Amino acid sequence: xxxxxxxxxxxxxxxxxxxxxxxxxxxxxxxxxxxxxxxxxxxxxxxxxxxxxxxxxxxxxxxxxxxxxxxxxxxxxxxxxxxxxxxxxxxxxxxxxxxxxxxxxxxxxxxxxxxxxxxxxxxxxxxxxxxxxxxxxxxxxxxxxxxxxxxxxxxxxxxxxxxxxxxxxxxxxxxxxxxxxxxxxxxxxxxxxxxxxxxxxxxxxxxx
Amino acid sequence: xxxxxxxxxxxxxxxxxxxxxxxxxxxxxxxxxxxxxxxxxxxxxxxxxxxxxxxxxxxxxxxxxxxxxxxxxxxxxxxxxxxxxxxxxxxxxxxxxxxxxxxxxxxxxxxxxxxxxxxxxxxxxxxxxxxxxxxxxxxxxxxxxxxxxxxxxxxxxxxxxxxxxxxxxxxxxxxxxxxxxxxxxxxxxxxxxxxxxxxxxxxxxxxxxxxxxxxxxxxxxxxxxxxxxxxxxxxxxxxxxxxxxxxxxxxxxxxxxxxxxxxxxxxxxxxxxxxxxxxxxxxxxxxxxxxxxxxxxxxxxxxxxxxxxxxxxxxxxxxxxxxxxxxxxxxxxxxxxxxxxxxxxxxxxxxxxxxxxxxxxxxxxxxxxxxxxxxxxxxxxxxxxxxxxxxxxxxxxxxxxxxxxxxxxxxxxxxxxxxxxxxxxxxxxxxxxxxxxxxxxxxxxxxxxxxxxxxxxxxxxxxxxxxxxxxxxxxxxxxxxxxxxxxxxxxxxxxxxxxxxxxxxxxxxxxxxxxxxxxxxx
Amino acid sequence: xxxxxxxxxxxxxxxxxxxxxxxxxxxxxxxxxxxxxxxxxxxxxxxxxxxxxxxxxxxxxxxxxxxxxxxxxxxxxxxxxxxxxxxxxxxxxxxxxxxxxxxxxxxxxxxxxxxxxxxxxxxxxxxxxxxxxxxxxxxxxxxxxxxxxxxxxxxxxxxxxxxxxxxxxxxxxxxxxxxxxxxxxxxxxxxxxxxxxxxxxxxxxxxxxxxxxxxxxxxxxxxxxxxxxxxxxxxxxxxxxxxxxxxxxxxxxxxxxxxxxxxxxxxxxxxxxxxxxxxxxxxxxxxxxxxxxxxxxxxxxxxxxxxxxxxxxxxxxxxxxxxxxxxxxxxxxxxxxxxxxxxxxxxxxx
Lengths: 208, 522, 350
What we know:
- The complex is a heterotrimer.
- Chain A is of the alpha/beta class.
- Helices cover 35% and strands 20% of the residues of chain A.
- Chain A has a single domain, classed as Rossmann fold, CATH 3.40.50.300.
- The longest helix of chain A is centred in the C-terminal third of the chain and has 18 residues, at 167-184.
- Chain A is globular.
- Chain B is mainly α.
- Chain B is globular and about 65 Å long.
- Chain B starts with 7 loop residues before the first helix and ends with a helix.
- The mean pLDDT of chain B is 79.
- By secondary structure, chain C is of the alpha/beta class.
- Chain C has helices spanning 2-20, 49-57, 70-79, 97-102, 119-122, 144-149, 177-190, 194-204, 212-219, 236-242, 277-287, 290-300, 313-318, 330-348, and strands at 35-41, 60-66, 88-93, 106-107, 131-143, 168-171, 207-209, 229-233, 254-271, 303-304.
- The longest helix of chain C has 19 residues, at 2-20.
- Chain C is globular.
- Chains B and C meet through helix 2, helix 6, helix 10, helix 11 and helix 15 of B and helix 1, strand 2, helix 3, helix 9 and helix 10 of C.
């Protein structure tokens, strides 16, 4: 699985001024790198830079040895889950999860089949027919995760997911996340300001 | 959703707009219909040319809608999702065409494209796009500013290319405002008069409004006019029924998001190009008017501007006085429309949907028809309002009401009712709690409604020409009068007045945009 | 809250009421009490200054309301027949008058001043209901400068137009009153053969504008367009001199194709059911008074009907009264108008 190793070399991020020192790290299969820091320190910017939303100031990002400079978001194969689930309200739960499969050209039927499996897998088969806004926060979070996993990302980026939820639900979900990414072997970068969360999840941590 | 959260004092407030609309909208129309009603009308309704005109007008309107969306959506994106210097100015500028008197727009288009584009249909559609750009940009932009851009990012990380993101995520998120904007543009283009008369060149560009004008003013054939008016109202109602069916009832984003700073070369290029295109599109017809106001057969001159102040020109009355009058009327209209808008907002909250439907009726009725009805209804006996001078602001407020409704409804549906309970639980009296929870949005809605209504009033011509006193014309009426007389000075003075109208409108819109957006954002 | 709203609404109405309510003037000499007379007219009516002051001297406060163009004015008068919105109407013309008198819109009145009116108009009262006030002619105007430069002869007869129709812009008779007048001029000249004449104009490339404004201000060569012939008014050349930017312009650069003229007469009438019919009659007499009649030309660019009214110099030198102007019998216009417009639409493919 060498092609899913994320390497970051001398990466400087920010908009006009650099927010961080030059960053160097690697994340491999089954690893969860937790980035810990106060809000405003550039954690989220790091994730959006990796995902290709904004360009780096300098440095390189390599995925499986290939430089990602100039590669648009949709061709990077990097999954990104934000703090809020951001489900697409006009689509059904199944179509939310199947979105990536449809985008990659799969037929509607096979996408739905796979999405139904994933919904079942995150333990939500009983809410299949519900609208996105009828879900509880925890349920929506699970759907968002399933949706990201369905794309079979080479790297998964989690931007303080579930931080709007109550602590108990959040911890349960985070444990699920941990099992999942270890099981699937997806290199993961998780961003948080909560040190206890870092301890729970991290195979390694990064701060600056 | 919000009905149960209304304090008792406000629960019955919807009665006010309902009564006002019944008195000043429904009653005059019924009165007009009753006066013109006859058995002949029914046979006129089966006249095939009438239906032919309706069908052609539908086609023309559909073209206008399509092109307006095509041009307006990118501009809405730039103006409502990015923060940059000059944004407010461009937003105000693209709204100007909507409130310019149609005669002025039509002449601007004729002098710009008259030779290059001989096809009347193309000219008419272009002019409709020009006028309605503001409708598309403002309605769709308002919704766009509530769409979380991270939704699009999420879709892209799932492997969707930009086109796919746009069609499967962005457009569906904007669906309701697109449907609303499309219906409004359709109706305006379907019932267009001034543009079609000046720029249309034949049977392909006729509208029912034109048939109506010809029947009332040339042939004095009232049954035919009534038939045309009824058919027009039916089409307009159909459009609304369809648009209500098509728009989705789903909870919408509640927060107006901070606009993005521009980052990246591509984005910067996109924003700059769109702004430049918008500027060129909006400014070129205006520029030809500006040019007319400072040029004469002898070259460039400021004579027309200086003459405006000296008011030596008795045959048109004093332009300065007309300006004062127009501003006064705009102020009256603004206050009335703000009250009406606020009350309709509460009606929206109390789920009194029929008030909203009532308020949308003026969209389907020409200003002239409405003016004629009001004239008939309030000119005699105990209901004689003519001497009071209140008729023009009332009519203008009614014309502006659909815009008010369009502005008010989305932002009010977005208010989180929990805020009301929080305020209540903190010990506030119901009215106070209501104001704490909804006051800012409500105030923003009233301000926006009043400002837009004032802008509409400044440029409105049709009703003003019916209702204004001869010795005290409004600016658009004076422009039209000047343009119906020969002589270089008449045309140039009309151009000067148009330029002043444009400046006034822009100033007004800039102020409203600033204050209203600050109120809604904080 | 209710009270607040009510107060604001009333406030608005009062503010606008104050701003436009007429000032009350003290009666000169304090004899007759001030009486109010309401007049409706069309939007292009321009008040001769002497008119209002003369009426004030007679104790009349005139409130004028304009209601669209001449057609809309007539339409609103017919809709309100018997229960009028004013006391008198000014501005109905000979094309539409028959319809209005047929619907008992007016009450009959013969002004004592009618004896001073030119004989050809004095009889023209539509059965005693209407009083002629002014008249004008719709004629083709030519841009002389263009014809000089291009060394083309200015046409002198309607029959010459088809071969140079690509130089002419007319207005759509369905939406423009001069356009309608010109159509009627061709009907008066060619009788039942008129459609053939228009077919020839069409084949020759005549331009049809939706309104006079568009024709004159954007298609006529004088205003930068490409058509040196336009359907306008007989007085337009004089207006070009009076309202020229350059004060040294003393001679018109346009002239009138005398052969193409159609006569329009404007009337005033007391509305049936008026609240103040006697005041309305005084207003009509004043409209016919020598002073007001002499004020009419330079304000409205039409001719007074009064025989002894002196015309301003600019009229006498550049805009002589057209002697050859035609017009159709009002009854014929009334009967055929609808079918004329339909046929015209078919011929011109509009």
